[in-house]
Structure formats: structure tokens, C-alpha cells
Amino acid sequence: MSNAGIQATKSAGPLAGSWAVMNYLGYRGYTELAAKTLSAYERISQGIKSIGYEITGKPDATIFAFQDNINSIFQTGVKMIEKGWYPQIQPSNIKLGLPSTVHLNISPVHVEVADEFLSTLEGIHKNLSDDSAAGKLAIDSADKTAEYLAHMLEQHPENKTLFFHMLYHLDPGKGEEIFRKMTDRDFHASME
Q: For the chain, what percent of residues have pLDDT higher than 70?
């Protein structure tokens, strides 16, 4: 039977998994993990602010985003990835009026690597270069077709921030189309 309206029994898997983990950890184990997570969050979020970034909004949890009001946050995110960290770069769109950010999801393991993360981030922040050329190229390309833009990104693989600048400056529909084409291309290439 196909059930398009509700999840049916599919929701029982995560529920059973959560129950099993909670029973394994117990109250004490859970609170120890929560304390580690909060400690890592406080250390990392305070460190990010002291480096010169701004925490976006007022997060009530250990999932948060930060922005850079002076330099391109895209460059920060790409350089963090190149250094072996995996933040999520969240490009906004100029038409939405929201800032582009780097998104982090803090967990208990981050308490052990918080200082290393912040040291890497600070080194990157001190050495950011002007990537306004990528932004200008993205703005100048706003009236091009999605196929042309995807091709242009392929021609400039060294400029990893170009993609995020394009998503920021393009019409949201066109940005989504480019993202879909590139994802399809990458997925199909990995299947060959």
C-alpha cells in the first residue's frame, strides 16, 4: 500500500533508535554529552566572535551560523573546507536581503577540537584576500543562461568562491537551476 499522506511506520525506526541510545546512555551519560556539547558551543561561538565574525541571530541551540560583514564569508568557508573542516556554506540571495553565512552544528566531539578549529579559522581570517573579482564576474553573468554559467564554473575550477557568488547575485530560480545542473553533472560523473 502506498501512503502519500503520512509516514506510516517509517517514523518508528528513528524513534526506536532514539529509545535504544537513551537507554544505553542513561540520564548521566546523556547529561555528560549535553554538557560537552554546550561547552564546545560556548568556546567556539565566543572564539568566532573574538576573531571578528558575527553570530547570525540569537541561537538557542548548538546549531548556528556566522557571517563576515567585511570580507566574503564564501572565501572563509571554502578555505576551511580546504583545511579539512566541513562547515556548510549557506549562500543567501541579494534579492532576499539576508546575509550569507557559514553554518556549524556542534556536537560532543567538538569539545576536543575547538581550539584547533579556532586557530585554523583565525589564520584564514588574517589572510583573506580580495575576492571581489568573483563577485563582479557573478554580477556580470546574471543575464546568461544556466548552461553558460555552469560551463563558466567548469572553466574556473580554481575559483571555488565563484559558485557561491553566483548563487548570491543571480535570480533565485536561475541559481537553483545551476545548482541542479552541476549536482546532476557531478553525480553522473561519479557513476561512470
A: 77
State the average pLDDT over residues 90-114.
92
Domains of the chain, residue spans: 13-126, 132-191
Contact 68, 52 (CB under 8 A): yes
**Does the domain formed by 13-126 have CATH 3.50.40.10?**
no
Give 14-48 pLDDT, tens digit per residue.
Answer: 889 999 999 999 999 999 999 999 999 999 999 99
Angle at 150 between CA 148 and CA 154, to 5 degrees: 110
Q: Phi/psi class of residue 107: alpha, beta or left (left: φ > 0; alpha: ψ in -120 to 50)? A: beta
Look at residue 1 in the predicted model and tell me its pLDDT: 38
pTM for this model (two decimals): 0.77
